[in-house]
Structures are given as C-alpha cells and as structure tokens.
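Appendix B. Raw example, untouched.
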Amino acid sequence: MSTTIILDDVSFTYPTQQNPLFEHLDLSFHEGWTALSGVNGSGKTTLAMLLSGKLLPDSGRIRVSGEVYYCPQLFTTIDVDDYQYLYDYGAYGMELRRLLDLDDDMLSRPETLSGGERKRLQIFIALSRMPSLLILDEPTNHLDEYNRGLLLDALHRFDGVGVVISHDRAFCDALVKRTLIFSRPDATMPVHVEDMPLPVTKAFAEREGRRNALLSQRAALAGRISSLDQTHRLLDQKVRQGAQKLSKRNLSPKDHDGAGRIDLARVSGKDRKDADRKRALESQIDRVRSDLSKMEDVRLRKSGLSSRRFNTLHSSLPVPAGSIEVPGYRLDFPNIEITPMSRTAIYGANGAGKSLLVDHLISLARAKWGDDLVAYIPQEYGVDDLERVRDAFLAMDDIQRGRIASDLYRMEGDPCSFLEEGLLLSPGELRKLDILLALDRAPALLVMDEPTNHLDITSVMALESMLSTSSLTLVLVSHDAAFRQALCTRTLAVVREGECGHVVLQ
C-alpha cells in the first residue's frame, strides 16, 4: 500500500515573530524522494520539523501514517534503541551493510569514526528502521565523493517517502525527481512554495524560464497600456477641440449661418465619433489593466552578483616538489605551477591532506604577493571569525557597505542582521558576508576551502555565475561536483595510501 503525507491548510508562526512563516499551506508527499530547496531561512528546516512532529502547526493538519525518522546534519552517538538494528543480520541489514561499506568494528566505536563513516552509520540506522517518512538534513556536508556514492546507492533502495534538504545539486539531481523551491520576498510575507516535478538543477532552470516569461508578459501588457494611454490623450485633446468648435458660446447672435452649421454637425453625429472612440478606448485600457492586475506578482531580486574588477597576477606561482609532514602523516607533491587566471580544483577523500596542500600554497602566495592580493575563504568559522567579519563590514564607508549590502540582498541575505550586536548568525549568513568582503578587496588570487558548505543553492549559483566570468586566479577545494566542474579547468587529486599521500595532476 502506498504512503502519502498530507499537509492540509497548515499555518505556523514562531513565537518570537509577528508574521507567519507558513500560511494556509497545502502539500502532499508520495513515495520517492523530494528535495526542499531555496535560500537560507526560507523555512525548509521548519517544514522538516513540522513533518517530523518536532514542531506543531498553529492550525491545519499534518497527516503522517507510520514511523517518521529525522536525520539531522550532525550525528554524535548511537541511541539505546538503535542497537536492535545494528546487530540485525537479516538479509536487509546485510544488504545495507554492503551498500554502506560498514563492518561490526565501526558499529562498536562511533566516537572514533570519521565524518563520512558517521554519516554512513546514521543512514544505516535510519534505513534499518524502514520508516514511512525519512527526512535528511544536509546529508552530504563535508563528505567526499566516495561517501556520497555510498549514500546514493543506499538511498535509492528506500521505497518510502523521502525528503532531503541539501545545497548539493549533483547529489540531489541523482536522487530526487521532485523539487519544492522555497522563497520569501520579505519577512512580512509567508513563505511561497513552488512545486516542480523535476530534479533540482532542472527545477531552478524551469523556474527561471517561467519567471522570465511572466516578466515579458507583464512588460508587454505595461507597454500596451502606455501606448493606449498615449492614444487616449490624443483623442481626449481632439474631443476637447471638437467640443469647442461645436460650441455656440463665442458666436454672434446674428451669425445664423454659423449656428446652422453647428446644428447640422450635431444632428449628423459628427461630434460623437471621437467621443465614442475615446469611450471604447477607455474600456480597452480598463480591460488590459485588469489583465495585468490578475497576473501573478513577480517579486524578483536582481540575479547574480555585481560585476567587479579584480587585480591580475602578472607572474606564476611556482610550487617546487616536496613533502609536508605532520604527526602520523606525510603528503608528497610534484612541481605545481599556479598560472595567472588559472582555475585549479583540489579534490580527494576526507583526511587525504587537501588542507595541508592549501595551507602550503597560501603561505607561498602571501610570501610572494602579500596579503592584499591573496584572499582565503576557510572551510569553517569560529567565534572570533564572527567579530572579524562584522568589524570589517562596519569599518567600510557608506558606498562600500552599500555595495556589499546590495549583493547580500541578491543572495537573499539580510544586511541589517550584521549590524545587530549579540545576534547569532547562521554559518551560511556568515559565509556569504565573508565571501563578499573578500571579493570587494579586489584580490588577484582567491583560495576557497569548501565554500558551498552551509550556502543555499541560490547563493551558490550566484557565486558560480560571477566567478565564471571573472579574471580571478582560483584555487578551489570542494566536494560539490557541480560547482567544481563549472569553475575549474584542472584538478589536483590528493590520494591517501595509509600514512602517506601524494598529489596527482589531472
């Protein structure tokens, strides 16, 4: 029997907010995978919490039959009731172990597992429960290609209702056949949800096509109204002039011939032709205005990021062959050359040494060109980074800050939030501002370590569009295959073999 999850006229408002996040929301979920996509803060996680029962709607009903299992971004430990699934050696459990490359040793030491291993264990527990509804929140954050592949293979076997929140376009495109795009033009309006029976990348392309077509229709109707208004003004002027000609006010009482001509014109109806045309035109204008008012209001923020000029490297950065050693590990690399305006991706499994190589490249680059020409976006942010980024934003003059604020708005961020003391910003909001501050410095070399982590798809696509047409020299560490392939022309693959690793130029 098929499973269906139904949201019927659901409304929800957070207690700390005045305006509803969801209002009269009707949705249904059927077997198969659906992606929840859209900007940070648009309600994706809130909807997941409502579906899982962790939040309750203010009004309306959510009908879920069977067990619901929610997988948060982080997995820390195994619950007591999970062990009945961990040591189930039935056919289904053994198949999941094979698909997720798990062994009993891993099951007994979750605290020592890598991020990828923990995520595979989390998905194993979730799938072993065979829930009716499985919800995944950013399942691929920090995962390498190997772990992504294992997750996909296992998730394709799930035959219930699946909901995934993810910024990873390649992962979603391989998993889902339906995308819900969340948007909220401003905080006073409820979230708008667009339902697309397409994978994520195609859904956003279809959405952009629909919106562009709607904008064209609105522009055509507005142009038609402008043209009709101009014709109406000319007719109105002509009617006024005709009325003056047919008026006897300025005739001499003795001008019987003139009065006769006017009477004849009035009887013949010549004076009504232009007035009739004017009234018909007014009716036509009213109809066109009505058609325009009935069209969907398209509230579009400007797409992409502002165009920028960057400094240019006038020489290459040679990286002589060598080794980097840390306790318990050594990374060997050949001669590497970072040429002006080149686009280099650094790719490899978690723990292979990508960050070691990046740190070495940045050290050489800053020694050669200084801090002003080299910008670095780290993988993660600490508490001190919030103050660093906010202080840099506040130290700008009004013109600079206005430029950054404009791009934050285009990335669906809230510039005002960075001015409020004590406000806890999301990792995605902090990353957006840090990237824009780095770009505003007009560097020549930009080094980014997993920049798409915590960013929503809209922001990722805007950043991708701007960087693809820039003159920047780029070094990019990313597990996001779509982002990496869109921007980079060569790859440095970092391969680990036991306690040693090496770099392969591809």
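End of appendix B.
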